[in-house]
């Protein structure tokens, strides 16, 4: 019996595509929960962690909210509120755009960089453990499968 069948108490599926999609959804949820729990140890969400990583990638420059939203792994309708919470916690600051005074640019702070480093240490342990358990070749194959899914659906 598969882990999927045991987990959702379903033993027959309409077809292989149906079973595969449910497996992907369950696995994605499992991984997201594990990563989110690492972030919550530092009082931020996985989506806020993603914003910090995006801003760290452009540091010392920043991005407007719309650019951050486009780059997020999980697009969030409330990106502004996520950034607001990071600003309130001192991990991000906002500056007016010199090109468009109506637009603000979010930039990661030193505290944000330090927080990201602490969380990344745990995330790296998780991903290293995942690769160790799955094997590098399987990880590359999973990435290829996922790339094909993203291209074809």
- Alpha-beta content class: mainly alpha
**Model regions low in confidence, pLDDT < 50 over at least 5 residues:** none
Mean pLDDT: 94
The neighbouring-strand order within the major sheet is 1-3-2
CATH superfamily: Winged helix-like DNA-binding domain superfamily/Winged helix DNA-binding domain
CATH level 1 class label: Mainly Alpha
Query: Largest sheet, described in full?
Result: 3 strands, antiparallel
Give the tally of β-strands. Answer: 3
Q: Domains counted in the coordinates: how many?
A: 1
Q: How helix-rich are the residues, as a percent range? A: 55-70%
Number of helices: 7
Which band does the percent of strand residues land in? 5-15%
What is the rounded distance between the termini? Answer: 28 Å
Alpha carbon gyration radius: 19 Å
| CATH architecture level-2 label | Orthogonal Bundle
Order of helices and strands: HHHEHHEEHH
Structure description:
By secondary structure, this protein is mostly helical. It has a single domain (41-152), classed as Winged helix-like DNA-binding domain superfamily/Winged helix DNA-binding domain (Arc Repressor Mutant, subunit A, Orthogonal Bundle), CATH 1.10.10.10. 67% of the residues lie in helices and 8% in strands. It has seven helices and three strands; from the N terminus they run αααβααββαα. It has helices at residues 3-8, 16-40, 46-58, 65-71, 79-88, 110-134, 136-152, and strands at 63-64, 92-96, 104-108. A three-stranded antiparallel β-sheet has the order 1-3-2. The longest helix is centred in the N-terminal third of the chain and has 25 residues, at 16-40. The protein is elongated, with a radius of gyration of 19 Å. The protein starts with a helix and ends with a helix. The model has no long low-confidence stretch (mean pLDDT 94).
């Amino acid at each position: 019996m598969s882990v999927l069948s045991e987990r959702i108490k379903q033993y027959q599926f309409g077809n292989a595509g149906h079973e595969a999609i449910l497996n992907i959804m369950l696995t994605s949820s499992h991984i997201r929960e594990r990563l989110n729990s690492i972030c919550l140890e530092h009082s931020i969400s996985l989506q806020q962690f993603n914003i910090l990583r995006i801003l760290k990638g452009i540091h010392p420059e920043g991005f407007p909210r719309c650019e951050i939203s486009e780059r997020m792994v999980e697009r969030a309708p409330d990106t502004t509120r996520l950034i607001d919470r990071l600003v309130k916690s001192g991990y991000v600051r906002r500056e007016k755009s010199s090109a468009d005074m109506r637009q603000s640019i979010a930039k990661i702070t030193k505290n944000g960089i330090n927080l990201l480093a602490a969380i990344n240490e745990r995330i790296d342990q998780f991903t290293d453990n995942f690769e160790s358990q799955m094997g590098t070749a399987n990880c590359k194959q999973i990435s290829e499968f996922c790339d094909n899914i993203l291209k074809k659906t």
